[in-house]
Write a structure and sequence with these properties.
Layout lengths: L5 E4 L12 E4 L7 H17 L3 E7 L2 H5 L11 H8 L6 E6 L2 H5 L2 H12 L4 E5 L12 H11 L2 E5 L12 H9 L3 H8 L4 E7 L13 E4 L9 E8 L5 E9 L10 E6 L10 E12 L6 H19 L1
Parallel strand pairs: 1-4, 2-3, 2-5, 3-4, 5-6
Antiparallel strand pairs: 7-8, 7-12, 8-11, 9-10, 9-12, 10-11
Length: 312
């Protein structure tokens, strides 16, 4: 099992040491259980061919290129993706820049120039609904044809659903998160949904009521249901700290942009400028308005108690 995954950007002039892998190709946003089935197919090929196992994805996500004004939708950062891939035995994550050149590339050119020549792959594993190339004209069947000419084999993973009929897809994760259904999101992902970011200075209002929070901007993460969550945060030094967080715009204070504000239980320390990753373990309640700070403090104490119970 690989401890860390090497992130490789670009596909031109790569040394041989970064080529010749069996790869899983796709967006893989969330690295959910459906994605892991595709990666398992690539892993089988890697073992059979005695080559490294790699994943080929895109940064930014193609949807961000084609719909630059779309609402934030990402489920993870590239760093989170690399960490999620490590336990699967993946050695490298090839992140291809999705830019004007990539958007205009035909399916044949992508298979030949990027996968065949640039990355020199030996095998490509894709999902049943994989499309690629300008206008999403390429299909798994087309990739197999191009691969035969370019020197790599192709496997196609059929759609996989949970035994209970749950669709295993990134869109299904987003639907669950919007509904505040963290259990369903976790079932699809195979782990809790987590937000990673730098701790920034807030208005420090929480300190005045004895509830100092670590504030993280949402950036391009999709917006789960606004409200209060039981959380588990991984700090920069590796410590895991339970807590309770408000995610949203705080109607009482009219926050201009959504923030994740995490109160870390039994913790004292300065986290400004550090990167933390916070799992949203359970949704406790929606956002509320309050008559004043005293009422807010009473509710926060109730939320903290509910969070501790949910995390016990």
């Amino acid at each position: 099992m690989t401890e860390t995954v090497q992130i490789v950007r670009g596909f031109r002039t790569l040394p041989d040491s970064l080529k010749h892998a069996a790869v899983a190709v796709g967006a893989f946003d969330g690295v959910h259980r459906g994605h892991r089935a595709v990666i398992a197919s690539a892993r089988e090929a890697a073992v059979r061919l005695d080559v490294p196992l790699a994943v080929v994805s895109f940064d930014p996500h193609p949807r961000r290129w084609f719909q630059p004004d779309a609402a934030p939708f990402r489920l993870m950062t590239p760093g989170q993706m690399a960490r999620a891939l490590a336990p699967l035995g993946v050695e490298r994550l090839h992140l291809l820049a999705f830019d004007a050149e990539m958007a205009a590339m035909t399916d044949e050119a992508f298979a030949r120039d990027v996968l065949g020549q640039g990355l020199g792959i030996r095998h490509a594993a894709v999902g049943f609904d994989f499309t690629f190339g300008k206008g999403r004209s390429g299909s798994p069947e087309a990739l197999a044809r191009y691969g035969a000419e370019a020197g790599f084999t192709v496997s196609v993973t059929p759609r996989i659903d949970d035994p209970d009929g749950l669709k295993l897809s990134s869109s299904a994760v987003r639907e669950a998160l919007k509904a505040g259904d963290m259990a369903r999101a976790q079932t699809i992902l195979g782990r809790p949904f987590a937000i990673e970011g730098e701790v920034v200075h807030g208005d420090k209002r929480g300190r005045t009521i004895g509830v100092p929070t670590a504030n993280v901007r949402m950036g391009d993460y999709m917006r789960p249901a606004y409200g209060v969550y039981a959380t588990r945060s991984r700090l920069a030094d590796g410590r895991i700290v339970d807590g309770v967080a408000n995610l949203g715009v705080r109607p009482m204070f009219q926050t201009p942009e959504p923030l994740l504000e995490v109160w870390l239980f039994d913790f004292a320390g300065d986290l400004y400028g550090q990167t933390i990753e916070t799992e949203l373990v359970a949704f406790l309640r929606g956002e509320m308005n309050f008559d004043g700070l005293d009422a807010l403090k009473v509710q926060i104490d109730k939320d903290a108690q509910a969070a501790r119970m949910a995390l016990a």
